[in-house]
């Protein structure tokens, strides 16, 4: 069953530049993960990133979630406000 996540991440003002710098590598590594079907993160307004992810199953999604902590992206966005919707289809 495909796992999807979509929503926004609002980054703390002092962390916006670090998030922008870390984003290309975060996208590259995420898209390279086994089971990643789609991975998009786009800054649509100052410090507000639209996130859309799709993984082939719970195992692939869980592996992604386990990989991200400790990365430059995670550090840059740890104080951010996440407003995501997650579902399976």
From TrEMBL:
<dbReference type="InterPro" id="IPR011008">
    <property type="entry name" value="Dimeric_a/b-barrel"/>
</dbReference>
<dbReference type="Pfam" id="PF03992">
    <property type="entry name" value="ABM"/>
</dbReference>
<feature type="domain" description="ABM">
    <location>
        <begin position="4"/>
        <end position="66"/>
    </location>
</feature>
<keyword id="KW-0503">Monooxygenase</keyword>
<protein>
    <submittedName>
        <fullName>Quinol monooxygenase YgiN</fullName>
    </submittedName>
</protein>
<dbReference type="InterPro" id="IPR007138">
    <property type="entry name" value="ABM_dom"/>
</dbReference>
<dbReference type="GO" id="GO:0004497">
    <property type="term" value="F:monooxygenase activity"/>
</dbReference>
<keyword id="KW-0560">Oxidoreductase</keyword>
């Amino acid at each position: 069953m495909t796992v999807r996540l979509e929503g926004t991440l609002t980054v703390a003002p002092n962390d916006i530049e670090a998030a922008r710098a870390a984003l290309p590598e975060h996208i590259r590594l995420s898209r390279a993960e086994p089971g990643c079907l789609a991975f998009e993160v786009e800054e649509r307004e100052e410090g507000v990133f639209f996130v859309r992810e799709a993984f082939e199953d719970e195992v692939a999604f869980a592996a992604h979630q386990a990989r991200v902590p400790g990365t430059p992206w995670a550090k840059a966005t740890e104080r951010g406000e996440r407003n995501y919707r997650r579902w399976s289809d």
